[in-house]
Design a protein that fits this description.
Elements (H helix, E strand, L loop, with lengths): L4 H22 L5 H14 L5 H27 L7 H5 L3 E9 L4 E6 L2 E7 L4 E2 L4 E8 L2 E6 L4
Parallel strand pairs: 3-6
Antiparallel strand pairs: 1-2, 1-4, 1-5, 2-3, 5-6
Helix pairs in contact: 1-2, 2-3
């Protein structure tokens, strides 16, 4: 199969543009490597290499960049997450001050002298006076579980 050099250059440029658009939309560092591979293949097109050699160059360069550069790029892009006051609540226990019964949509806990609406993670009932662990926060509700007995 023969494709002239100009047509092949436009195909590589199309692949570059397509993969860059997908990368911009997803921002997952998944297709940027194919953009780099297509760019190198486009350069190799100027040397009038066989189509299959250009495709091999595209594949090898894309895979090498994905394997070697992706972990480094991900570390560089990872932003520092600053914990908020709510994140600190995840390490604390709360006291049940009103029976927690998810089926009745009732239940309150006291945490740091603040009353919170609470719901159990597994829809179990937890009576007043028990200590619970905070699993997560959904809006203004604390999702809790029974504190494991040690």
């Amino acid at each position: 199969m023969y494709i002239d050099q100009t047509t092949m250059l436009f195909i590589w440029l199309g692949i570059i543009i397509l993969t860059l658009i997908i990368e911009i939309i997803t921002q997952g560092l998944t297709t940027i490597w194919f953009s780099i591979g297509a760019a190198v293949a486009a350069i190799s097109n100027n040397w009038e290499l066989n189509l299959w050699i250009q495709i091999a160059i595209f594949c090898v360069v894309s895979i090498l960049f994905m394997i070697l550069a992706r972990p480094f790029a991900q570390r560089m892009m990872r932003s520092t997450i600053n914990p908020t006051n709510l994140d600190q609540l995840m390490r604390e226990d709360a006291l049940v001050i009103e029976d927690i019964d998810s089926s009745r949509q009732s239940g309150h806990v006291r945490l740091r002298d603040v009353e919170w609406i609470a719901k159990t993670e597994d829809d179990s009932v937890i009576p007043v006076g028990e200590t619970v662990s905070i699993v997560r926060i959904e809006g203004t509700k604390l999702i809790v579980s029974r504190k494991s007995q040690s």
